[in-house]
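Z., the sequence and structure:
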Amino acid sequence: MLFTSLENCFGLTKEMVGGKAFHLGQLITNGLTVPKGYCLTTQLFETYKSQTGLDKLIESKVNEIKANPVTINKQLAEIRDFIMTKDLPNSLYKDIAALVETLLHTGPLAIRSSSPSEDNIVNSYAGVYYSTVGVSDMDGAFKSIKKCWASLFTERAFFYNQGKVSTEMAVILQKYIDPDFSGILFSKNPVSHDPIPVLEYKSGNNVGITDGNESGRFVKIEDIKEEFGDEFVTKVTQMTNQLVDIFHSDVDVEWAQKGDVFYILQARAVTTNYSHPKFLWAVQEDLDTLFNVNLGHCHHLLARRLQKHVWFRKFCHEHNIPTYKTYYLVFSEDEIDYACEHVKRDMDMPFLRLTWKKGVGQLCKREDIKEALRYGVENKYNPLGNGFHCVQIGDVIPAPVTGFSRVLENGDILIETFPTGLFGMKDGRIPPTKYVLNSNGECVFSHIE
């Protein structure tokens, strides 16, 4: 089956329609209001891969990633470029175009990815796979469908699939609701874990909230009576209870309000055990552990480093090449002394860098680590709930010189050096001192700055 209506998705498997489409079909079956639409199944994507040669390209690039993980950025980019530039086979194009044309008669479209692996992602964050709204023409629809497929092959998706390249994707084609208000509904407070439904919402569409780039107003449902009225609060409360019964779990729900109609755009069960964090001290290369633990804001730090730093350091360790260390620490305030014992046992450098989230960090002496941890706790830089916090701790190498090196086409090695601590090294604002060494280790060129 290459495509089906959303209401039929609950009768199929998540492997065929993806988690998002499967649950939308489940909601329609239970009488909830979901915008009309279709699902392009994973089988359609499989057909596209086999008829265009994409399947062979993916196999080749995955093997190259396994052989040299540092090249992951390049290999995944080549897969994405192939998808975005390769035309669809004529038969697939006609089938999809007929569905798109039917929906465009009712207005603009929302086009959303629906991955079979979504329900298996322990650390569910917004914006892993591509979705867009307001698509108003055929060319835009096909470009968006391809972007959904291509979003499988990003460094971020690689991280959320626990260091593996997932190759299955369904796509939802849906009538776009241009809402008065929209946001996310949580049956349980995701911050405090109190069993009280809360809403995060804003006027207009909620794309900024769902992709993680904006924050809406975050309130308990009972606190919005004045703005939305008693009837709205009663309706949302009843719907929340119904969803909890359907999923047999707490839920988070992407929603949109248009006039008097409350639409559900997406819903999923919240089955993680984030409300029960425990002490953790794990080196950055221990991905089997870190993939399955709530690190709060530090998950974004790990995802960024997965592209290159983690694989490079694993290579260094395997070949006994000295390199700096980075650990992730999950701790409660009562465990700070215990945490300090781990830091002083495993980290050798006299200075450490603590990073709680992007743009929030501290530089401290190794012997001052206790005060630095207490400061982060007091300022609530990265709370996980139940009194626990998380921080990334890395060595600061006290070297007078830092720099870059690479192998040139003729086999010589180019070394560029800078005094440590200068800003502007990576973007070229500061010219480096350069040396070129031949294969015998002899300096054949130098330029001193």
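The mean pLDDT is 86. The radius of gyration is 25 Å.

Let me know what you think.
H.
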